[in-house]
Amino acid sequence: MDDRPDTRPEIEPYHWDLESKWDDLPIMNSKDKPDLIICDPPYFDKKAREYSEQSISGLSRENYLKFLERYFLFFKKISKKKTRLAFINSDWRDFQNCPAGKENPHQAILIVDYHEILKKTGWMLTHIIQAPMSSERFNAGVVAAMQKKKILGVVSRYVMILK
């Protein structure tokens, strides 16, 4: 989220230290536990240059997934038994300017990869909602270039609801 101290002082920027234990965060000592956690992490790799240097987006695939595993365990630790997690994500494939048939599946992070980590960390999937994106980004020029290069486009995001 953008840090906007003038209009939204309750939004405090926080950069997760990948090495710390996160035991010193205020929520660890709070009696109040969340009923709902909404998680929309930075994209893996795709927009790494657009995020801050501390972003997990620039991590390797392996370290990105390791971070998310640790993050979901942290959520479990600070939650009630009835807490719900809404995890917003999209399949990530090595597809920028790459024909679909030449994508590297070993570089992909798919909804099944996220689900595997969530399940491993104790979260149970209850719903998957497919949220359509605006089609405005697919103008005639973009579509023509994608057709020429045989690139598959992404037209939705997933919202995984877990308890």
Structure, explained:
- The structure is a single chain.
- By secondary structure, the chain is an alpha+beta fold.
- The protein has a single domain, classed as Vaccinia Virus protein VP39 (Rossmann fold, 3-Layer(aba) Sandwich), CATH 3.40.50.150.
- The chain has helices spanning 61-77, 111-120, 140-149; strands at residues 36-39, 84-89, 125-132, 156-162.
- The protein has a 4-stranded mixed β-sheet.
- The chain is globular, with a radius of gyration of 18 Å.
- It starts with 35 loop residues before the first strand and ends with a strand.
- The model has no long low-confidence stretch (mean pLDDT 82).
Describe how the helices and strands are arranged:
Blueprint: E1 36-39, H1 61-77, E2 84-89, H2 111-120, E3 125-132, H3 140-149, E4 156-162
Parallel strand pairs: 1-2
Antiparallel strand pairs: 2-4, 3-4
What distinguishing features does this structure have?
163 residues; alpha+beta; Rossmann fold; 4-stranded mixed β-sheet; 3 helices; 4 strands
CATH class identity: Alpha Beta
Rg value: 18 Å
Number of E-type strands: 4
Strand fraction band? 15-25%
Could you please say which CATH topology applies here? Rossmann fold
End-to-end separation in angstroms reads: 24 Å
Broad shape: globular
Which homologous superfamily in CATH is the superfamily? Vaccinia Virus protein VP39
- Biggest β-sheet description: 4 strands, mixed
Mean pLDDT: 82
Q: How many domains make up the 3D coordinates?
A: 1
Low-confidence stretches: none
State the secondary-structure class: alpha+beta
